[in-house]
Write a structure and sequence with these properties.
Helix content: 25-40%
Order of helices and strands: HHEEHEHEHEEHEEE
CATH architecture: 3-Layer(aba) Sandwich
Number of helices: 6
Strand content: 15-25%
Structural class: alpha/beta
CATH superfamily: Vaccinia Virus protein VP39
Number of strands: 9
Shape: globular
């Protein structure tokens, strides 16, 4: 049986959904005005496909291709807020996924490099970036656990998959004074979001909140 299109897809209902969406972000701790503005500009609906499209404005993770997920918006907002990218910063994102997080970062930083082990996800994300006329993102299929040494160092690094420890190659590609935000944990049940700041000597680690992410896997995927 084919589902009839819902009348709730008119402009007014869409605006109401976005208002509720932004209110939910604020209520869950996303308070940075620049981050909220970026998340208002970038419509999550462009990055959610097929049967889950109607749930794009709900604060929940949703399945995407290659067995991956698009993170729940409040987690995207909180990670971006912790990363605190500036308008002159170059950012590396490890784990392109749907492309939603990279698109948010593109509104806040000068240049965003995003890598994913799945070529299909990179290809589909680039299609959305092109449709939205976002020109300051470079998306590549690569093993993100090794970063992008040819483009390093980075002002900010955001990892959207969980590692057992903050990956050494990524830490080494962070500028002094730079920030990396990464989920860390040895299982998908117990993970913590960590903010790492590179100091003149060593690193400062700050635990932010419990999270659940897919694991950071070495190598390229088959798709």
């Amino acid at each position: 049986m084919t589902e009839e299109p819902r009348s709730g897809d008119d402009d007014e209902t869409r605006a109401e959904r976005k208002m509720r969406f932004l209110f939910a972000l604020r209520s869950r701790g996303v308070t940075d005005a620049r981050v909220l503005t970026a998340m208002e500009r970038i419509d999550r609906g462009h990055f959610v496909r097929n049967i889950f499209a109607d749930r794009a404005y709900e604060d929940m993770p949703l399945p995407i291709a290659c067995g991956q997920t698009i993170s729940q918006p409040s987690v995207v907002g909180l990670m971006t807020q912790a990363l605190n990218p500036g308008p002159r910063d170059t950012v590396l994102e490890v784990g392109t996924g749907s492309g939603y997080q990279a698109a948010i970062l593109s509104q806040l930083a000068r240049r965003v490099y995003t890598v994913d082990r799945y070529r299909r996800l990179v290809r589909e994300a680039v299609e959305v970036f092109d449709a939205l006329k976002i020109t300051n993102i470079t998306a590549l299929a690569a093993d993100g656990s090794f970063g992008l040494p040819d483009q390093a160092p980075f002002d900010r690094i955001l990892v959207t998959a969980a590692a057992e420890d903050p990956p050494g190659p990524l830490l080494s590609q962070l500028k002094t004074g730079g920030i990396m935000v990464v989920p860390v944990g040895q299982s998908d049940a117990v993970q913590s979001l960590i903010k790492v700041t590179r100091l003149e000597r060593g690193y400062d680690y700050q635990e932010l909140r419990p999270v659940r992410f897919v694991p950071l896997v070495e190598g390229l995927g088959s798709e």
